[in-house]
């Protein structure tokens, strides 16, 4: 608004100068001759010029008033903005001071705040993530590992909050492990995901970090980290990390994928009172492909067993794919998990995983399919009170 007022004031100056220049040329015009008609025409032109100058003067007065109103509005707006910003800043500063005062006692005694997220570990240090606030706050993420250094573990949450993710492992001759995911809150919160295993430059890739457990009433287990890549001719990949276990009410985490180069997929986490077991991780690809991970069990009242992971695919002709992982056991009321399928290959057999069993009420899981003549998995048993067995997997 202030800029617009300045521009309009400039327009006023230009118009005023133009009117002044026109006044000398249009007012007091001499008659073309001594006759009455010429005198009449000159008088008419002079009258029009004087009327124009009077009207222009009124317009300039209005223009000046309008510019003054714009300047006043701009000043009022700026003052209102300043007045509004000041209380907000005061409130913000007050909130920060109050939070610092609340956190000071627990920080001094227990080394963690009452409210607030934990600090993240710095990259390439393998430092663990900081713990979240005792009352509310997420755990910090673990730092990635440097050369030949394991990834840092994720920080734990307090009462309410999610666990931090584990950091990725660093590269080495044999890759280092990924960090474990932090545990979820005691009342509510999910476990953090595990960090990926590091690359193995000459031999085996690092193992993926386990997913964090959900420790409280509500929450899901964290996903296991993927295994690291192994050396491409003689090395093997790292195993996938296990999925985290669920809280009383929640789903378990899936196992991590096995590393490239052939490594077993991680086992799915177990569920508690209400919830499904986590699925097993897929086996790693490689010349010697690995099996899929076992599905997690539902060990409580309601829930399905996790499905077994698919076997790893074979790289190159004449090599076997990995076997499928077995399905997890169902809860007291719930079905068993299906067995994982055999990994693909070129002309070589591999077996499917077995279906998981039901317990009291529920159906058994179906067996996973085999490949190229490999046996299909056996179907899981039905519940002892009610339920049908799972179907056997095709060969």
Automatic annotation (TrEMBL):
Compositional bias annotation for Gly residues: 369-385
Region listing for Disordered, in residue ranges: 182-205, 369-395
A Pfam family the protein falls into: PE
Highest taxon, organism lineage: Bacteria
PE domain boundaries: 1-84
Record InterPro entries: PE-PGRS_N (IPR000084), PGRS_rpt (IPR048996), PPE_sf (IPR038332)
Biased composition annotated in UniProt, kind: Low complexity: 386-395
Full protein name: PE domain-containing protein
